[in-house]
Amino acid sequence: MTTxxxxxxxxxxxxWLMDPSGGAFSIDQLMELAGLACATALQKxxxxxxxxxxxxxxxxxNQGGDGLVAARHxxxxxxxxxxxxxxxxxxxxxxxxxxxxxxxxPFDAVINALNETTxxxxxxxxxxxxxxxxxxxxxxxxxxxxxxxTAPKLGSKSFKGTHWLGGRFVPPHIxxxxxxxxxxxxxxxxxxxxxxxxxxxxxxxxxxYGMHSPWISTQKGFASRSTTSLEDMHRxxxxxxxxxxxxxxxxxxx
Length: 254
Description:
Keywords: Isomerase, Metal-binding, NAD, NADP, Nucleotide-binding, Potassium
Strand order of the largest sheet: 3-4-5-6
InterPro entries: YjeF_N_dom, YjeF_N_dom_sf, YJEFN_prot_NAXE-like
Protein name: NAD(P)H-hydrate epimerase
Organism: Mixia osmundae (strain CBS 9802 / IAM 14324 / JCM 22182 / KY 12970)
Region (Disordered): 226-254
Number of helices: 6
């Protein structure tokens, strides 16, 4: 069974990935690898010929940076990505694994819209407003699919949908240090599926490849939305930074 990790362990792993004696990655490199994994999970679930439009909800931290990178890759994969970016800033998909408490404006309105939508949702790392270790204790929305990055978090144990893992970038010595039981990534694979489910939706989403989740789609509930060009995606990638406490952010939900 793939190892489930705590919030503290997730933070420690991120620090080791950027440590010269660990992974020696820069934060930009980690965002690039995580964003590519997210885009790949989408591409393996829904092809652009049947689901060309993708709405990506991104927060202002490193998690949102992963979403911006994913948008760029999805554009290259043949999709038409649109960014919903409710709070733009040069530092810190909406929260990181350091999140706790109740969502604050403007993110609470986004969570409410996700609660009400009937469209399929894919979350990144842990669904927004879920407790990283305890799961959906607040009774908020449950996504149809989840992609965990590096290693799945304890809070994902109760998740019932299709569960992807993107962690090819974790070096063997870091996996050994933290006793991570991770799957192999054969060939050029960027993601592995940990659990599959298939459902049929009244909205007509086909269950291609036995999966059921396009990246975030939502109903007409967002009062404002920012659309972003490919050039802006590249610029926004470089602006997303670490949180104010200096720790790297977990890449949480879209």
